[in-house]
Please model this.
Amino acid sequence: MNTNNLQKSRTCDLCGTDNAHVIYDFPPGYYDRDKFTTFSWDGGLEIGLKIVQCNSCGLVYQNPCITPEAMKFVYPESIIPEKIEYDKLLATHKFGLILDLIRKFQAKTNKKTLNAVDIGTRYAVLPMLMNQLGLTSYGLEYNKKCVEAARKSGCDCIHQGELTSLKELAASVGVQEFHVITLIDVIEHLLNPSEEIKLISEMQSSGDVVIVTTMDNDSLGHRLFKKYWYYIHSQHTFYFTKETLVKLFAKQGYELDELVRIPGYKSIPQIPSELNKLRKHLAKRASTDNVHKEWFATNRPHLFDLFTLVFRKS
Ligand SMILES: [Zn+2]
Model:
């Protein structure tokens, strides 16, 4: 396969410079395809993965970065089910913290009716939950197969599109702005976050909020496990910290309103079992066993490394 158009060198999305140093450099074929399933690692393509840090602003990002042409390999549609079991998903959801933050926003704002959009919504479970809180909520999802499956299973608040189609979504549902915008496990997948956060800011006014959940590049898990950290792979184009996210949102007129992270000490009891996973991972990479094929990240370790930030438009 011609791999020339699957990755492209880029400058720093935050400050525009191209003065960066390499943190991790994984050569093509780092995971043997006979031993591992690798779609989110490299799309099953013969491409390497390089993670760099900007010397000017500290942003950590993938460079060269996957291109839109590589997306169909890195995000295969074959893993999406035909039908979504909403009863089960709504009963076992993990959006408790996000819903608490939205309730806080509802208590503070003097705006009467609130519109919300969840970007990268998968099956639109979060918009359904936000509707239960009294917001009028929409889900925007890039993957056509997710949208089809959700619609077929009874979800009517999901729309197909990328973040760049936010304006079209607003026009099609007849709203002027989205008071709450959620990016849950999404911002680390964007190709041009500065431009995309600008599009978000154009759909909000003073006091509106963006709620972001992503992995914290400064977390204990990353500091301990380094190149073996679970969250490192080709789907993840940006590796933010509190500082780089604050800079990204400040460019579009947002202030950090709240930050929630699980304290490092709560992760400590997890460390022995995660180290055991890492030991298995290293053994699998070194072995010649290609009978028991496993997903490359099955035993890549992590701790409570996600954090959630609320940005309020000034
Ligand atoms: Zn920079």
About this structure: The chain has eleven helices and 15 strands. The longest helix spans residues 271-286. The pocket of zinc ion is lined by residues 12, 14-15, 17, 54, 56-57, 59 (CB under 6 Å). The mean pLDDT is 95.
